Amino acid sequence: MAPPVPLLAVRGSDGTSLLRGPPECEQHSAFQRDDRVSRCLTFSRDGTLFGWCNGQNVSVVKSSDGSVVTTFDLPKTSLLDFSPLNNILVTWQPYSKSADSPQGDANLQLWELPTGRLVKALFQKKVESWCPSWSEDEKISVRSVNNELHFYENNDFNSIANKLHMQKVSDFALSPGGQPSKVAVYVPGSKGAPSFVRLYQYPVLGGPTAALANKSFFKADRVTMLWNRKASAVLVTASTEVDKTGASYYGEQTLHYLAVNGETAVVQLSKNGPIYDVAWSPSSAEFCAVYGFMPAKATVFNLKCDPVFDFGTGPRNAAYYSPQGHILVLAGFGNLRGQMEVWDVKKYKQVAKPQAPDTTHFSWCPDGEHVATATCSPRLRVSNGYKIWHYTGSVLHKWDVAAGSELWEVRWQPFPDGSFPERAVKYQAVPSQLGTTQAPPTQAYRPPALRHLPATPSSKLHDDEPPQDLRPGVSGEKNISKSALKNQKKREAKKAAKQEVKPQLQPELPLDHAPVSNSQSEASSGDPEMDKKIKNLKKKLKAIEELKEQQAAGKVLQKNQLEKVQKEEQLLKELQELQIG
Prior knowledge:
By secondary structure, the protein is mainly beta.
């Protein structure tokens, strides 16, 4: 039996349309194009249903033949979603008040399909986490209400089956798949206490002893939590709004790993700088992180958080695994030039290096053979359009919007896992009338006066690091013991960290504010006794800082250690008074 042909939904100022599959991407004959301005669109999880709002009503049709399932008179709907088994359609419109309704109207509606019966109307003022999260079998659903989690069972939204009571639950992520369902919750730190993420298995939600895993950390204003497909582990990217060192305007990020068996770890990244993206492999056995000041590094880690393959450095800020997990695309979008690196994951061999400038959207087709790139408004209001590529770099279909029109969204029709088999990776570009777009080799800028002279090695802006296979036995490490290999990796990480301390990352200071190096003695107050007191206070504060780091790593402090930490504010005040005096 031949595999199905995916659909591509396109939404813009000219209306909503469905295209039938790569490589031709022709209009889907069973779907009547809607020329009215569309506010939103979505497919069901299995791709059998398609819904959109055209500013007059919400329509749901069958993707296969375009037959109407149901229609709702909801002209202001801005977001749509289906429950996993297509029993519920969720609609959301911006919350508003009026003279007739000073308290506002319930703006989150849950509708039964295909009868169109209203199951429940709820208040949801914030667009963040607007939609309830369901388990795959729809036996459990959960939503965040006033900093606590409300659990419902079997789509009965009239009674709360369970609650997670914790101080200010800021975010959560329900595990994919069916039972038993797990939930990751994030509680931000306050009053000197660290932030933490905990994993629970429903319905055992009470107290820290019920947690499957717990990870605490100090540097976190917000987090993103990402489950793997098998629901066995979560990756947590903790971010601060401001980098206190002044090295980056991105803030600071750290990457943490939590497994349902209780194991936790901090993922050690070998280059300083922001974490741009983290992606799980569909196999759930490894993940890829893109990180570090430009040119960024990309590394694949296993479930022990050990590096497996290092892709070296390059202009990249995103990672995308194919649905089958056999291909990985590293890309540099946004403020980068749109370079894509296509890698065979099993052989860790580069397949192609196409380039898609001004890309604001990238997505894999479910067949694992094609990708879509698009330039959409409002991110970019010029040169709107999309391209369908084969992963080898061939452009198979291209569409540019007409002058005065805008493209807002493109979305592939999803399919259940296993609908498309994994095919052997091709290294030769497939034939195409539109050709390929390979990234040109990058060169450092040279002023006009020097362009007639031959280039020298010193003209490079930076030294690019080549890819490196870190699997034992692959790159001559077969005879190295595990302990020696571990020490070697530590030395390499320490060396890389030293190389990252570059003068251009330090803020420029006036000469009278030049920092004193560690080899120089600290400035003396002229009073030996006072200098001694200042030195002792700094020593105590350093010890407290170390205790706080140990606490953030999960270590339980003893009573006398906790008392030391509580004295930090008092010691800082004493130090300030001595230094002012």
